[in-house]
Fold Alcohol dehydrogenase.
Amino acid sequence: MPESASYVLESANESLRPDTLTVEGPANEEVLIEVAACGVCHTDLHVMKDEVAFPKPAVLGHEVSGIVREVGAGVTHVAPGDRVACSFIMPCGRCRHCEKGLEDLCENFFNFNRLAGQLYDGTTRLTREGEGIAMYSMAGHAEYCVVPSRAVFALPENVDLLDAAVLGCSLFTGFGAVRTVADVKPGETVAVIAAGGVGLSIIHLARAAGAERVIAVDIDDEKLALARELGATDVINSAETEPVEAVVGMLGHGVDVAFEALGSVATVRLAVDLLDAGGRAVLAGIAPAGQTMDVDITKVVRRKLRILGSFGAPASTAMPEVIRLAAEGRIDLKKLITQRFTFDQTAEAYELLNERKILGRGLIETNATLA
């Protein structure tokens, strides 16, 4: 059982603290990974601020790439030494939803991991002096992590191992929103509200899907400039310009698809208001607990609008696709990753995220032996 330098959230509204934990080896259908990099995601920040309930103490970090060091029984698709990236949704493959291909609704993932911080035998792989430490997904803000094998995907040699970490949440979530839920078609018009890590991925993937106009909406001109670099055809600073009027001024009508990537009452309402008749609003931003929708019901009914939730994607089909897009150079990971941190800057990275000082995706590089 290796010792693993890790960053631990001891209790809500505290900074992550460095510590050394014991990592139990992989059980059946699990993989032990030496972490090369882990993304800095707003969902982890929600947990830190107690806006999303999760057991504590815990190790966060759910956007991971690394090197396979050991595999449990039944794992045949990867082997020690393989370069891999992991999806934050870790499907069990056996529950009623997984059996239907709806891996993003995996009951065991939500019941065991998201509610209890455990893997699917009801235990954690992390301990400190005999005390179990909760795992948020695979608990990637550490030197080592254990991941259910259905969430582990081999990388081709032409995909940078460090950059590949963001494939497992930012791009994976964006892919689910654009391809699986919205099914954006060539020639459609799209608005993306909030140009953070996930929003920028949605912009990038919507253009790759053939959207004719992709309109980025944010209050930060630097983020909007980055959105243009990643494929936005138009940008709106909603702190300066009323976005519905601006979109109608551009198109003569609303958009076919509006993506909401922040998770707030105001931005969800805006997503619905930006739609053309028959349009679809795709909600991909996680909101603090207790937030509810505030939309005009009659508008939704009479204009035949659709409001769709999107949480990740089916891992077995989406991860190979985003890896393929990266290998073909159709997504630019270097532009999406706007700030890089060393492992000992993990706590600082989340402080900057909380202060809205990370433009795109932040990436923490660990001390892995990349061979």
Observations:
- The two ends are 20 Å apart (CA to CA).
- The longest strand covers residues 30-40.
